[in-house]
Specification:
- The protein has about 130 residues and is α+β, with helices and mostly antiparallel strands.
- It has one domain: Cytidine Deaminase, domain 2 (3-Layer(aba) Sandwich), CATH 3.40.140.10.
- Helices cover about 30% and strands about 25% of the residues.
- The chain has a 5-stranded mixed beta sheet with strand order 2-1-3-4-5.
- β4 and β5 form a beta hairpin.
Length: about 130
């Protein structure tokens, strides 16, 4: 799989972030089992609990387009290297991850870093 394309789409999504409170833009791109890409960015709200992370936005986009299985997720923020998903996003990602896990792609010093999702959420809750 060409994860560079996935990361480029995550970077593009980050440019559309609505983050006037944290000033921390994040973009994410999901690769579905169909081979299609779905992306999203974070968007904030003055009632902070209503803020949506880029990863959950991208997964929602995938679901809205009929995707039910995710192979990989790229996450990018221009403000942080190796930008990993928060706990809530990890649980949402786990809903669409097989027992083998999916690949989580980040960027460090311009190089892609790939982790298996199971490293990020061992012993996850899954029915």
């Amino acid at each position: 799989m060409d994860y560079q394309i996935l990361m480029e789409k995550a970077k593009f999504a980050a440019t559309n972030s609505y983050s006037p409170y944290s000033h921390f833009p994040v973009g994410a791109c999901v690769l579905g089992n169909s081979g299609n890409y779905y992306y999203g960015c974070n968007f904030e709200n003055s009632s902070f609990g209503l803020t949506i992370c880029a990863e959950r936005n991208a997964i929602g986009n995938a679901i809205a387009n009929g995707e039910k299985e995710i192979l990989a997720v790229a996450i990018y923020s221009p403000k942080m290297q190796d930008c990993l998903p928060c706990g809530a996003c990890r649980q949402v990602i786990s809903e669409f991850s097989s027992n083998e896990g999916i690949d989580i792609i980040t960027e460090v010093d311009g190089n892609l870093k790939t982790r298996n999702f199971n490293e990020l959420l061992p012993g996850r809750f899954k029915l």
